[in-house]
Write a structure and sequence with these properties.
Elements (H helix, E strand, L loop, with lengths): L5 H8 L5 E6 L3 H12 L4 E5 L14 E2 L12 H9 L6 E2 L5 H14 L2 H29 L5 E2 L3 E5 L2 H16 L5 E3 L1 H7 L9 E5 L3 E3 L2 H14 L3 E4 L2 E7 L2 E6 L4 E9 L5 H7 L7 E11 L8 E4 L4 E5 L3 E10 L9 H13 L9 E9 L6 E5 L2 E8 L5 H17 L16
Parallel strand pairs: 1-2, 1-13, 2-10, 4-17, 6-15, 13-20
Antiparallel strand pairs: 3-9, 5-9, 6-8, 7-8, 11-12, 12-13, 14-17, 14-18, 15-16, 16-17, 19-20
Helix pairs in contact: 2-8, 2-11, 5-11
């Protein structure tokens, strides 16, 4: 029987076994938050229902996409929306039965794409990316994980002159923030990725784009480093959170009530459900992404290939080739539709003639996304002992070290390195 009474809450708050800092979520965001706080000498416990880096953070596209500063609403999605929605296996899909629930989020997404909000979102994201690059460099050095970094750059590909020209405003915006790139065609394009289909007439090479050898192994390695500084893990599902004057309470699935002096909610696509318990309604939606991980021998991929017109990438990992991406706005309860991963693999075969599709492993993960493409980083509205760190969308791995730094500074009472108001939980 669940012990959720006021007496149980009070007993938990007075318990000598109180946790210093509890983190809900064992994905890459929670891992990095734990690493930074443990480095600072705080006692940290992560709670996760599955394990460390076992869910969405385990199967992503492995990119440290520091140049990806354009909010999603500005990256051509609105323009492509009618065409994509007409294809149930295309880059963007919305199950018809889910559309009524999704409409409020879509309205916010459309508003986020208006020109009057463009510069503020762009500047906020660019600042976050500068911090992310610096913090990842430092964290990798301290944790001894620098050998897991690949610095091969990325290659974005275009099938027509019209598609290339449509991309130019976005590249001009990146250039204003000091992001380097070069447009290539012909022999230069072929040299960057031999074996491409001739349907691709131009590309854009971004030398500063980085990937990691395997996102799951990197996450576990950062966690091992956090453990050396005293961080702990407890396998448990958290069903309820609450706030008091002196801390927070966590109610586990078995009814156990635990106390924490400070709580960080970094539970990815489930975070907004926990935030509701303490009175914050945050418009998080779930982008379900699909991929197929092939043997390394499937194709000699030189660097991450970005097929932006089709919404997916091909990434060379240490021991595999990963084909994945696309967006299915379908929440967290619907079963996976692996026809989407098969459709991506079919396209990859056309784009990379010679790609061997045999021996693949299909996967689906949940991207926790907010309408303006900026995460929530900050304190709960009415609970100063609870901090949010979620909603990074496609950029969780990229921005995780920066988020760890920012959350650490908030909890320690230090001034943040930049204005956090664009990331405030109260901005909606």
């Amino acid at each position: 029987m669940r012990r959720s009474s006021h007496a149980a809450w009070r007993a938990a708050m007075n318990s000598d076994a109180a946790i210093d800092i509890a983190i809900i979520g064992g994905g890459i965001i929670g891992i990095c938050v734990a690493a930074y706080l443990a480095e600072a000498g705080r006692n940290v416990t992560i709670f996760d229902r599955t394990g460390i880096c076992e869910e969405t953070s385990s199967g992503n596209a492995a990119a440290l996409a520091f140049s990806d500063v354009l909010p999603l609403a500005h990256k051509g999605m609105i323009r492509h929306l009618p065409k994509w929605l007409a294809d149930p296996l295309g880059p963007l899909s919305i199950p018809p039965a889910y559309l009524p629930k999704l409409l409020p989020w879509l309205v916010r997404f459309w508003r986020a794409g208006r020109s009057d909000r463009y510069e503020a979102s762009l500047a906020a994201q660019a600042g976050m990316m500068r911090l992310a690059e610096a913090e990842w460099a430092g964290l990798m050095a301290r944790s001894g994980t620098g050998n897991m970094l690949r610095e091969d750059g990325s290659l974005e590909l275009y099938e027509s002159e019209a598609e290339f020209k449509a991309s130019l405003p976005g590249w001009a915006a990146r250039q204003r923030f000091g992001i380097g790139f070069s447009h290539v065609e012909g022999d230069a394009l072929a040299a960057l990725q031999p074996g491409l289909s001739p349907r691709f007439v131009k590309g854009t090479f971004v030398p500063g784009w980085k990937t990691v050898t395997d996102p799951k192994l990197l996450g576990k390695a950062i966690w091992a480093y956090a453990e050396t500084n005293g961080a702990r893990f407890e396998k448990a599902r958290i069903d309820q959170v609450g706030a008091g004057l002196d801390g927070a309470t966590l109610t586990l699935a078995d009814g156990t009530v635990r106390q924490a002096k400070c709580l960080v909610i970094a539970a990815g696509a489930w975070s907004h459900l926990l935030a509701k318990h303490i009175g914050d309604r945050i418009p998080l939606e779930t982008e379900r992404g699909y991929n197929t991980t092939l043997p390394k021998t499937a194709f000699d991929v030189k660097r991450q290939l970005i097929f932006s017109g089709h919404g997916f990438v091909v990434t060379p990992l240490e021991t595999a080739v990963r084909v994945g991406g696309a967006v299915e706005l379908g929440g967290i309860e619907r079963p996976p539709n692996y026809a989407r991963s098969k459709a991506l693999l079919d396209k990859a075969q056309k784009f990379l003639p010679g790609l061997d599709p045999a021996g693949g492993r299909e996967w689906m993960g949940f991207r926790p996304s907010l309408p303006d493409s900026l995460p929530v980083i900050g304190g709960a509205r009415q609970a100063g002992t609870i901090v949010y760190a979620f909603g990074h969308g496609h950029l969780g791995l990229t921005q995780s070290a920066a988020t760890g730094r920012l959350v650490r500074d908030l909890i320690l009472g230090q001034n943040p390195v930049f204005d956090l108001s664009p990331f405030s939980p109260n901005r909606f």
